[in-house]
């Protein structure tokens, strides 16, 4: 029942690679954004604007995002043509292209739990640590990080899980190239289209179980920390 | 978290992927080839064990847009030679578009005996949905539309028409029950799963021919496998498989037994 073809394995590899890279990149860039949104000293209007911008991928149809990225990253677009003029390849229909798309697409899922965790934490602990002589990095790694661990776990999981389920953006930007941009969700669509329902079913069921297990583990861990609830 | 530098390094290691690579042969193919080309690639890989071939199926119009936008396909098999001609004219192809097959359209259903029906029967009240491929970017959809116009029922049929994104999806829509009947490629109707149900071959005088052409793209110019596979497509093995799926080879006629 669970015999997978080489194409299936390739798609699993691409999907996991995409989800892991996306999560790592998002943790790095979402942390300062979330901190700034939660505790920054910027005027309210600017903060609201940034918050709206971060949340955009939640409401935009993935095809809109995919379309703009295709225009931007393709050979004729500003980013793509610049890369080409440096002798590099443009990013449409590449793994790097869908990685950029995934980071943008999952950004709100990483920022929002972190923002909530940081808001719960408040400025106080860092200020105290600062007054005790802790440097910026020290304050982050020894105070903020452990105290909002739950927020980080939720952010990482949601970013990871959301990337697994990505479809529309990758369909627009990826072109379903095996081993490069053909992720599981696209391959399932492709299997169904080839009327290979057995394969579509195998992968769908696998993805369903995997998604449940990931969420189960996270909620179990999260309950122990109990710092952030969704 | 202390290993921020390691992380950045890893991300940096991704960059070499940006530099052009001459990897395996990547084919873009029209959806009507879905089963035939899979068989051909299997044979090809058996005869050329060192060549890796990967293929993506879709509607010819969409594939063309993707290639214009820099999609990394080395060879493009279109269901309508007009698309490869356009790519050639705009400098995206390095070979002249070459005809590899002529496609045919059929009326197919898994719930009614389509072989006993004609296009006019589609207006019957017991048929609520008729699936065709999208005429905006799928060649089989354009030909289906032409045939329906030729018999004068296109306007009357409008409320019943549902569009598939490409011809394989159209076949699936019928198979899954979204439409009772539809117009699909003969090459799909000949696929074992679908061939259990009879089809009605639509007279090719009712529409422009589905002249299918392929090109090697600019990207595939230096890819030896691309050229080898293009030659293979013109060889006997590939042509036999294509014939088996109901494609008409250039300069040949469809055998009589294809109309069942």
From TrEMBL, chain A:
<dbReference type="GO" id="GO:0005886">
    <property type="term" value="C:plasma membrane"/>
</dbReference>
<dbReference type="InterPro" id="IPR011867">
    <property type="entry name" value="ModB_ABC"/>
</dbReference>
<feature type="transmembrane region" description="Helical">
    <location>
        <begin position="20"/>
        <end position="38"/>
    </location>
</feature>
<dbReference type="GO" id="GO:0015098">
    <property type="term" value="F:molybdate ion transmembrane transporter activity"/>
</dbReference>
<keyword id="KW-0472">Membrane</keyword>
<keyword id="KW-0997">Cell inner membrane</keyword>
<keyword id="KW-0812">Transmembrane</keyword>
<feature type="transmembrane region" description="Helical">
    <location>
        <begin position="167"/>
        <end position="189"/>
    </location>
</feature>
<dbReference type="InterPro" id="IPR000515">
    <property type="entry name" value="MetI-like"/>
</dbReference>
<keyword id="KW-1133">Transmembrane helix</keyword>
<feature type="transmembrane region" description="Helical">
    <location>
        <begin position="50"/>
        <end position="71"/>
    </location>
</feature>
<protein>
    <recommendedName>
        <fullName>Molybdenum transport system permease</fullName>
    </recommendedName>
</protein>
<keyword id="KW-0813">Transport</keyword>
<dbReference type="Pfam" id="PF00528">
    <property type="entry name" value="BPD_transp_1"/>
</dbReference>
<comment type="function">
    <text>Part of the binding-protein-dependent transport system for molybdenum; probably responsible for the translocation of the substrate across the membrane.</text>
</comment>
<dbReference type="InterPro" id="IPR035906">
    <property type="entry name" value="MetI-like_sf"/>
</dbReference>
<feature type="domain" description="ABC transmembrane type-1">
    <location>
        <begin position="12"/>
        <end position="218"/>
    </location>
</feature>
<feature type="transmembrane region" description="Helical">
    <location>
        <begin position="140"/>
        <end position="161"/>
    </location>
</feature>
<keyword id="KW-1003">Cell membrane</keyword>
<feature type="transmembrane region" description="Helical">
    <location>
        <begin position="201"/>
        <end position="221"/>
    </location>
</feature>
<keyword id="KW-0500">Molybdenum</keyword>
<feature type="transmembrane region" description="Helical">
    <location>
        <begin position="91"/>
        <end position="111"/>
    </location>
</feature>
<comment type="similarity">
    <text>Belongs to the binding-protein-dependent transport system permease family. CysTW subfamily.</text>
</comment>
């Amino acid at each position: 029942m669970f015999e997978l073809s080489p194409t299936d394995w390739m798609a699993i590899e691409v999907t996991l690679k995409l989800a892991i890279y996306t999560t790592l990149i998002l943790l790095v860039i979402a942390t300062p954004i979330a901190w700034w949104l939660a505790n920054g000293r910027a005027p309210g209007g600017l903060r609201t604007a940034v918050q709206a911008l971060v949340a955009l991928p939640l409401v935009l149809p993935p095809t809109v995002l995919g379309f703009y990225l295709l225009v931007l990253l393709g050979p004729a677009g500003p980013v793509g043509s610049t890369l080409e003029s440096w002798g590099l390849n443009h990013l449409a229909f590449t793994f790097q292209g869908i990685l950029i798309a995934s980071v943008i697409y999952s950004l709100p899922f990483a920022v929002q739990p972190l923002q909530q965790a940081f808001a719960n934490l408040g400025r106080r602990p860092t200020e105290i640590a600062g007054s005790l002589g802790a440097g910026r990095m020290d304050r982050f790694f020894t105070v903020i990080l452990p105290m909002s661990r739950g927020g980080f776990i939720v952010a990482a999981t949601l970013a990871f899980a959301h990337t697994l389920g990505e479809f529309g953006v990758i369909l627009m930007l990826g072109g379903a190239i095996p081993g490069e941009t053909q992720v599981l969700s696209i391959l399932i669509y492709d299997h169904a289209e080839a009327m290979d329902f057995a394969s579509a079913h195998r992968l769908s069921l696998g993805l369903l179980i995997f998604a449940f297990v990931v969420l189960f583990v996270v909620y179990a861990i999260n309950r122990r920390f109990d710092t952030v609830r969704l | 978290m202390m290993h921020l530098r390691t992380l950045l390094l890893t991300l940096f290691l991704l960059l070499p992927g940006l530099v052009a690579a001459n990897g395996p042969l990547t084919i873009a193919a029209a959806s009507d080839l879905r089963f035939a080309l899979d068989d051909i690639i299997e044979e090809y890989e058996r005869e050329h064990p060192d060549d890796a071939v990967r293929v993506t199926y879709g509607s010819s119009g969409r594939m063309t847009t993707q290639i214009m936008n820099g999609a990394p396909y080395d060879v493009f098999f279109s269901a309508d030679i007009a698309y490869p001609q356009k790519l050639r004219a705009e400098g995206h192809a390095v070979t002249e578009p070459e005809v590899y097959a002529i496609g045919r359209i059929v009326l197919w259903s898994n719930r009614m005996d389509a072989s006993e029906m004609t296009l006019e029967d589609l207006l019957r009240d017991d048929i609520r949905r008729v699936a065709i491929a999208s005429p905006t970017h799928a060649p089989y959809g354009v030909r289906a539309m032409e045939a329906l116009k030729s018999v004068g029922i296109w306007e009357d049929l409008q409320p019943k028409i549902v569009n598939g994104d490409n011809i394989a999806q159209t076949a699936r829509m019928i198979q899954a029950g979204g439409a009772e009947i539809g117009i699909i490629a003969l090459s799909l109707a000949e696929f074992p799963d679908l061939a259990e149900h009879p089809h009605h071959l639509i007279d090719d005088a009712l529409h422009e021919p589905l002249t299918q052409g392929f090109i090697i793209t600019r990207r595939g110019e230096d890819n030896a496998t691309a050229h080898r596979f293009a030659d293979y497509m013109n060889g006997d093995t590939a042509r036999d498989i294509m014939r088996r799926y109901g494609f008409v080879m250039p300069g040949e006629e469809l055998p009589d037994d294809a109309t069942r």
